[in-house]
Amino acid sequence: MIFLKALVFGATLAIAIGPIALLIIDHATRGGLCMGLSSALGAASGDLTYALVALTAGARVLPVLLQQSARIQVGADLVLIVFGVWMAWSARKGLTAGRMESIASGTSTMSAFRTTYALTVINPLTVIAFMAFTPQLGMRSGSATLVAAAGLFLGSLLIQVGIALGGSVLKHALSSRAVHLLNVVSAGGIVAFALIDLVW
Hints:
Blueprint: H1 2-15, H2 19-31, H3 33-67, H4 69-93, H5 97-103, H6 106-121, H7 126-133, H8 142-173, H9 176-199
């Protein structure tokens, strides 16, 4: 029961379209399914990191996060804005044949994982959401913590993989020009999410 609850919660958190979902779509449309799946794994791994923090040391880190929440959020938004602008600039340049080969390489696949993981964990306020959910699990042992973390990870991963698959389908269904436009729109969406968060 703990695993199923955590699985559903992880999926629920991941299903909202936000900056990370747009990043996964961008990676999948640029580099194909492998790159999209690597990006999806990076996002789910970021969620797993904060799930483990919330389930083990959440009570100790929560006061610090709440005290610094405004600064943390501003910092995370600024990083997203800079990255979104870079994405838009990169997408507008288009993809030459040589760059396509580079994107298909393992290095770029690992880069997609690292980038998405890093952008997922720049906002540690996610721990608060996981901590709010923890009491509903009714955990009574250390092993239950691992079960819950696994459920949260798999729930998140299922949704992220679905997003990557969608991006991969778009890559093959759209023209090259339309894919480039979608990449620019994705980058603009990431910047927009961050700007809205900063203003409100």
